Amino acid sequence: MAGKVLVPTSTHISRFIAARFQLDLLKSTMLLIARTDSEAGKLISSTVDMTDHEFIKGVTTPAPKSLAQVLQEAEAVGKSGKEIDQIEAAWVASHKLVTFNEGEL
Question: What is the DSSP code (8-state) at residue 103?
């Protein structure tokens, strides 16, 4: 399940509220079950939600290409999953990743 993209916490909550609202309109009962594999997710659709900042890692120095760009290019040329993992590990090893809070220091 490579390439999981996480949504901000506020987006996830909004989806729950929307689902609940629809159930109320329909006067229906339903069990909502949400599943997240956030520990395995490495991409996020937006960093706008401050609630997520303590978990989001990034670089404080400019990189020629972002990790997302490097991975996208590797996939575009048909690299295997194992090769992509190696490319990712090499990129992460050569760039210091910090959270928002660590980057502000």
Answer: H
Q: Which amino acid is at 59?
A: V
Q: Which segments of 1-105 does DSSP mark as H helices, in order?
A: 9-25, 67-76, 81-94, 100-103
Q: 16: helix, coil or strand?
A: helix
Taking only the tens place, the pLDDT of each residue in 61-92 is 888 888 888 988 999 999 998 999 899 999 98
Q: Nearest Cα to 59, choosing from 99, 11, 1?
A: 99
Q: Give me the residue spans of the domains in the chain.
A: 1-44, 56-105
Tell if the pTM clears 0.90, that is, is over it.
no
Helices (H) and strands (E) in the chain, counts: 4, 4
Which residue has tokens 């020629």?
64
